[in-house]
Amino acid sequence: MMIGLLDFYQRARIGWIIGLAVCMMVAGCSNSSIARSGEKAAIGGAAEQGSVVLLSPRVPAIIPAMFVSQQSNAQVKIKIEMWDTFEQLLSHVQQGDAPFVVASLSVGANMHAKGLPLQLLEVDTWGSMYLVSVDSKVRKLADLQDETVYVPGQGGPAEILTRFLLRQEGLEQRVKLVAGTVPDIMQQLAAGKIRHAVLPEPVIGGLRAKLGETLHEVVDYQQVWRGIFSEDLPQSGIFVHSGWAKSHKKEVAQFRKLYREALARTKDGSDEVLKPAAEKLGLSEEALRLALPKITLNGKDATEARSEVERYFNILLKMNPDSIGGKLPDEDFYYHL
């Protein structure tokens, strides 16, 4: 049964990174239903309709993904579909109708731990999370003593990483963390009802467009992580449905090539790249353009990124084991090209 996984995400309100709806309780899935979903995907799934589905929340990966989907002459045709709730994500994975899935690494690890047929193909989003403030006197973590910081998702990566950094500075007992949803946190910051929050890009870009220089960064999690570990902070990636991948190795390789090319194009910030992504993300082009320099999109094969992913997972495991399913993912979590 999937109750443990769902209970966790009800507490965490799935993931700070998507900033969308609270997880919904769904029916459990047995090992046999997981096996059937793999079989369904393996015999074609979405590819039978002439396109391959990439399922994604509203995250930075949408920028290159949308560019890939608009390549009419591509060897593999990609169709973007959105997931807004964990219920939707689970349904698609169980049914095997979404060969590629964008998700935070913790979500993917948790699903893999529960027996769902997802493998990490590529890590593509690093850092891109900030502690921001509208208080001009707050410029570093130490300035937050006796203050309240709002984080998206109780027990999720944003809270865990913030507690980790506060602990590093000896401030864990001096700063209060309060969980909320990304939309609520954004609204309260914009209205001046709260002063400090942890948020991911590109949603901060929308706030920058509204608040201007009043909103400033206190902590760049990527920069701090580099200072501690001398490497980037992995956050989310592209997962592939293992049942489908077994019989579609060529398509997996073709998609990876297309996606890498799109990642390179993303960095130029052209209208051709940003306009369709902004529409999918529900942001203005201006907001996405403001966010782009603060987003680190860099493709790295799962096996190549494994040491960085496991360092990140070890922090999550130590601070909140449930956040990744209670253990480090095994070898099968990482897709081998």
Automatic annotation (TrEMBL):
Transmembrane stretches in the record are none
- Metabolic or biological pathway: Quinol/quinone metabolism; menaquinone biosynthesis
What Pfam families would the database entry show?
Answer: VitK2_biosynth
Q: Name one GO biological process term.
A: menaquinone biosynthetic process
Gene3D superfamilies, alphabetically? Periplasmic binding protein-like II
Q: Which UniProt keywords apply?
A: Lyase, Menaquinone biosynthesis
One GO MF term attached to the UniProt entry: lyase activity
Note the InterPro entries from the entry.
Menaquinone_biosynth, UCP027386_ABC_sbc_TM0202
Q: Which named protein is this?
A: NMT1/THI5 like protein
Name the species this protein comes from: Aneurinibacillus soli
User: What does the organism's lineage look like at the top?
Assistant: Bacteria, Bacillati, Bacillota, Bacilli, Bacillales
